[in-house]
């Protein structure tokens, strides 16, 4: 099984690197097909169903196989600040039939974590090892099927901190960076039942990023209210977005999710043109009536729509008014002493 998977790795996306274990120097290869990619909301452990075939092998053998890869497809990215419609956009692009979507591959998170400690005593990879791994993953993510015009990788929000180095490594790549303003972002995050778990789970990485950017000492995570945690998350992720836009100019399109929903067809047209997808104007005009817009993109079994989102945000603004206000005050207070923060709020 392992040899068969390795032999097919370079040639086809049907063999997918689902997970990396840097401590063991190992990689998990699994068998997927085009329909499985399209069905997967996330390429994380949720795709590891009992019937899925796969095997662990050495990371070195995967790196060697990746280096022997065939000609690749254009690879582009959807980056985002979290809970701002990135999965919806990815699924709408699926409807075109010319895109292979990779939604939140786990190895990208591993790559981001490895880059955080690169050069430090705790790093398991040397700079040369890291560069080789990054190059191999980009090569593997560039594989497509016969009808694939472009591969579009949707990153998980916590991995968007390496958006800039990824775009530096791949000069031909373009990106869309979905985002929201501070207030709607806070209302969105605080509406979720598991918002506290999500915010605390990503909190350590985000607050380390943020503290490295500003001089003022930040309060520890345990001292922040839920609204302040959401505000801190918004600032950390928005800063990553600004870095990418400032560094790469026209290669990165910043797209506000509320503006996207206000004109779905126009927004998809803008994205398609940016990614240079060969989509007909009639298809783009019809995309605003796609059934994708009536389902919850992260779990299509559930109904969800822009109208339902509007209602949930209205409820959140009522129920979570105190926490939203606390988060906005946190941002305003920090902006008062930190000009760089103030520029992010402008």
Please provide a written account of the structure:
This protein has 346 residues and is an alpha/beta fold. The chain has helices spanning 2-9, 34-39, 59-67, 86-94, 106-116, 127-141, 163-169, 182-191, 195-213, 226-248, 257-262, 264-275, 281-286, 306-319, 321-337, 339-345, and strands at 15-21, 26-31, 54-58, 75-80, 99-103, 150-154, 175-179, 252-256. It contains 16 helices and eight strands. A five-stranded parallel beta sheet has the order 5-6-4-7-8, with helices on both faces. Strands 1-2-3 form a three-stranded antiparallel beta sheet. A hairpin with a 4-residue loop joins β1 (15-21) and β2 (26-31). α8 packs across α15 (321-337), α9 crosses α10 (226-248) and α10 packs across α15 (321-337). The model has no long low-confidence stretch (mean pLDDT 94).
Descriptive keywords:
single chain, 346 residues, alpha/beta, 3-stranded antiparallel sheet
Low-confidence stretches: none
Share of β-strand residues: 5-15%
Order of strands across the main sheet: 5-6-4-7-8
Q: What's the number of helices?
A: 16
Mean pLDDT: 94
| Shape, per Cα inertia axes | globular
Query: Percent helix among the residues?
Result: 40-55%
Biggest sheet overview? 5 strands, parallel
Task: Output the radius of gyration.
Answer: 20 Å
N-to-C SSE series? HEEHEHEHEHHEHEHHHEHHHHHH
**Structure classification:** alpha/beta
How many β strands by DSSP?
8
- What's the end-to-end separation, in Å? 55 Å
């Amino acid at each position: 099984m392992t040899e068969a998977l390795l032999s097919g790795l370079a040639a086809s996306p049907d063999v997918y690197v689902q997970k990396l274990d840097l401590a063991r120097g190992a990689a998990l290869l699994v068998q997927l097909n085009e329909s499985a990619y399209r069905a997967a909301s996330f390429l994380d452990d949720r795709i590891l169903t009992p019937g899925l075939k796969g095997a662990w092998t050495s990371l070195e053998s995967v790196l060697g196989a990746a280096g022997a890869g065939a000609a690749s497809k254009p690879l582009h990215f959807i980056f985002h600040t979290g809970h701002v419609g990135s999965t919806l956009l990815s699924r709408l692009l699926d409807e075109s039939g010319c895109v292979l979507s990779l939604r939140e591959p786990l190895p990208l998170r591993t790559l981001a974590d490895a880059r955080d400690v690169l050069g430090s005593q705790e790093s398991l990879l040397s700079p040369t090892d890291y560069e080789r791994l990054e190059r191999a993953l980009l090569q593997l993510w560039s594989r497509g099927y016969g009808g694939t015009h472009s591969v579009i990788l949707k990153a998980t929000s916590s991995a968007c901190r390496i958006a800039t180095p990824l775009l530096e490594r791949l000069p031909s790549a373009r990106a869309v960076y979905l985002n929201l303003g501070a207030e709607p972002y806070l209302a969105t995050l605080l509406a979720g039942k598991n918002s506290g778990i999500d915010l605390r789970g990503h909190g350590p990485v985000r607050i380390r990023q943020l503290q490295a950017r500003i001089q003022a000492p930040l309060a520890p995570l345990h001292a922040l209210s839920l609204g302040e945690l959401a505000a801190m998350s918004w600032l950390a992720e928005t800063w990553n977005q600004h870095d990418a836009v400032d560094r790469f100019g026209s290669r990165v399109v910043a797209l506000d999710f509320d503006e996207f929903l206000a004109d779905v067809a126009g927004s998809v047209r803008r994205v398609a043109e940016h990614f240079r997808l060969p989509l007909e104007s009639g298809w783009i005009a019809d995309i605003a009536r796609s059934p994708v817009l009536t389902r919850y993109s992260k779990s299509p079994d559930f109904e969800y729509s822009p109208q339902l989102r509007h209602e949930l945000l209205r409820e959140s603004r009522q129920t979570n008014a105190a926490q939203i206000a606390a988060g906005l005050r946190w941002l305003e207070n920090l902006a008062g002493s930190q000009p760089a923060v103030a520029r992010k709020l402008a």
